[in-house]
Amino acid sequence: MAFVIDASAMLGVILQERPAIRIAPLIDRFEAEDARVPAVFPFEIFNGLEMARRRGRIDAARIVQFTDYLSALDLDILPAPDIHQAAALRRLAHQHGLTVYDASYLALAQSADLDLITSDMALLRAALAAGVMATQP
Question: How is residue 57 annotated by DSSP?
Fold first, then answer.
């Protein structure tokens, strides 16, 4: 089985923003299942890491460590949407009050009938409203 994880949840894991007891099951899940993410995922991750570096929360060496960690995970990164698919994401975002970035995670979970793991409360509510199984790490 596979699942979708959004950048907010992954950054929480990487930056250890969640108690270890809540993160451990997610790490176990990475070992047992494939994680699928939309094309925007790497950009959101590295933007989040760069913002954390600028705020003094991490240093460049840790970003390299996190890059190695992410590379070792079995992440299935989908290709970028074409303009029509992106327009559909915009409509989904509008429907649920999300960013288009977050709508890309919701659309992926919907289309593949996969669980969504997110730390973003708006995305969590939208997923549940759309009938997608969604949880927080």
Answer: S
